[in-house]
Amino acid sequence: MIVQFDAELWLWDARKLDSWTFVSLPADASQEIRELTEGPRRGFGAVRVRVTIGSSTWATSIFPDSKSGCYVLPVKKAVRRAEELHPGEVAEVSVEVL
Predict the structure, then answer these.
(1) Strands 21-24, 47-53: pairing kind
(2) What structural domains does the chain harbor?
(3) What secondary structure does DSSP assign to 9-76, as a single string?
(4) What are the phi and psi torsion angles at 28 (to 5°)?
(5) What is the pLDDT of residues 26-48, one digit of tens each?
(6) pLDDT of residue 19
(7) Are 9 and 23 contacting, i.e. CB atoms less than 8 angstroms apart?
(8) CB within 8 A of 84, min separation 6: which ones?
(9) SUPFAM superfamilies from the entry (predicted)?
């Protein structure tokens, strides 16, 4: 399953200088992924994925967010630098469930 969407980068904890930066997957895609990956999951409900943003592709995990009901994707600093992305900006994201 591959999901493509545009999403705004946001900080998990804005009080820290080097906070974790995420994008949220759309609600409908999150529901499809939840149905596709029913059964035992990795720690924190993580789902392994391959992500592409711009020319950067990497393997990581998405995590369920109990507040929004959507999965969230951490966007590592190396990718943000390579793609010149900052919190508040919108990125084109492709997520492939592995």
Answers:
(1) unpaired
(2) 2-97 (2.40.30.100)
(3) -EES-TTSTT--EEEEPPHHHHHHHHHHT-S--SGGG-EEEEEEETTEEEEEEEEE-TTTSSEEEE--
(4) -65, -40
(5) 999 999 999 998 866 666 789 99
(6) 74
(7) yes
(8) none
(9) AF2212/PG0164-like
